C-alpha cells in the first residue's frame, strides 16, 4: 500500500570530487535514522559506487541488476547501520556510467515500485555536471551542494548552480561547507559563493550547516564506520546531528506523496523519451 505521508528526497551533490560528499550523505543518513526517520541512501554514482565501501558492505546485487530486469529495488536493498538502507550502485562498470536519458529515467522509475515505506531518500550523486548528475539532482526536492575551501570547489559549485538555474529553472540550493576549520570559515566560504551568485544569477542560497575538519572523521573512514557512530562526541559528529535536524525541518513539497511517485513522475516528465 502506498504511504500517504510525504517523502523527503534530497540530492547530495558537489561541483567537484574530493570534497567529502559521500561521507556527508552517509553520516547525514545515519543521523536522520537516529531521529527516527526511515532513510534510504541511493548511491547514484553509477560507475564509481562508494557508499558501500565507506560502510564496509559487500552487496551481492546493485542497480545494474535493476536496469537489466534481474532484480527490483527491494531485492537489492542492503542494511546499513542504525536502520539505514542502502541502494548500491555498480563499481567499475563503465556501462553504468554511460546510461542514456531513458535508462536513467528507468532507474528512477524503479523507485516507484518500492514496497517499503520510507521517510527520506538521500541521493548521493556523482560529482560534476554530467547529464546523469543533473537528471538525478533536478528530480529531487532539495539539493545539498557540498563545497570546501578550494578555488576549484567554488568555481565548480558556481557552474553547477548556473547550469541548473539556466537550463532547468532550479532556483534554490542548500550549501554545506565541509572540512573547514570552524563555523566562521564556513560562513566566509558561503559568503564568497553568495557574492558571485547574487551578482550573476537569480538564485537563493541557504547555509544548511557547516562540517568542521576533524581527525576523527579520517579515522572513521579508515574503520569504514560513520563518524557519528565511531566517534559520537567528536566535532564532526555533532555537526552532522545538527545538519540532520536542519534537514528534517526543511519544508516538504506537497507533491511528494504516494511513496516516491512524484520523484518518478518528475523524472519521466523531464525525459520524454522514457516510457511509463
Automatic annotation (TrEMBL):
CDD domains: FlhG-like (cd02038). One of its GO terms (molecular function) is ATP hydrolysis activity. InterPro entries: FlhG (IPR033875), MinD_FleN (IPR025501), P-loop_NTPase (IPR027417), ParA/MinD_ATPase (IPR050625), YlxH/NBP35 (IPR033756). GO terms for biological process: negative regulation of cell division. GO terms for cellular component: cytoplasmic side of plasma membrane; cytosol. Keywords: ATP-binding, Nucleotide-binding. The keyword Nucleotide-binding applies. This is Cobyrinic acid ac-diamide synthase. It comes from Methylocaldum marinum.
Amino acid at each position: 500500500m502506498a504511504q500517504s505521508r510525504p517523502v523527503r528526497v534530497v540530492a547530495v551533490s558537489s561541483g567537484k570530487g574530493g570534497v567529502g560528499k559521500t561521507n556527508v550523505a552517509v553520516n547525514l543518513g545515519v543521523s536522520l535514522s537516529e531521529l527516527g526517520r526511515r532513510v534510504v541512501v541511493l548511491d547514484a554514482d553509477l560507475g564509481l559506487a562508494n557508499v558501500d565501501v565507506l560502510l564496509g558492505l559487500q552487496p551481492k546485487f546493485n542497480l545494474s541488476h535493476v536496469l537489466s530486469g534481474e532484480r527490483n529495488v527491494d531485492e537489492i536493498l542492503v542494511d546499513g547501520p542504525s536502520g539505514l538502507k542502502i541502494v548500491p550502485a555498480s563499481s567499475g562498470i563503465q556501462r553504468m556510467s554511460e546510461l542514456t536519458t531513458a535508462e536513467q529515467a528507468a532507474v528512477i522509475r524503479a523507485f516507484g515500485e518500492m514496497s517499503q515505506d520510507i521517510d527520506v531518500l538521500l541521493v548521493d550523486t556523482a560529482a560534476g555536471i554530467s547529464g546523469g548528475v543533473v537528471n538525478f539532482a533536478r528530480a529531487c526536492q532539495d539539493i545539498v551542494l557540498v563545497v570546501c575551501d578550494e578555488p576549484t570547489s567554488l568555481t565548480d559549485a558556481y557552474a553547477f548552480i548556473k547550469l541548473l538555474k539556466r537550463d532547468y529553472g532550479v532556483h534554490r540550493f542548500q550549501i554545506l561547507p565541509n572540512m573547514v576549520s570552524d563555523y566562521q570559515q564556513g560562513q566566509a566560504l558561503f559568503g564568497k559563493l553568495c557574492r558571485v551568485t547574487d551578482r550573476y544569477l537569480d538564485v537563493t542560497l541557504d547555509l544548511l550547516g557547516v562540517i568542521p575538519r576533524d581527525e576523527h572523521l579520517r579515522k572513521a573512514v579508515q574503520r569504514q564506520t560513520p563518524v557519528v557512530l565511531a566517534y559520537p562526541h567528536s566535532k564532526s559528529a555533532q555537526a552532522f546531528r545538527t545538519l540532520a535536524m536542519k534537514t528534517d525541518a526543511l519544508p516538504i513539497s506537497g507533491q511528494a506523496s504516494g511513496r516516491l511517485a512524484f520523484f518518478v513522475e518528475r523524472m519521466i516528465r523531464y525525459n520524454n523519451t522514457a516510457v511509463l
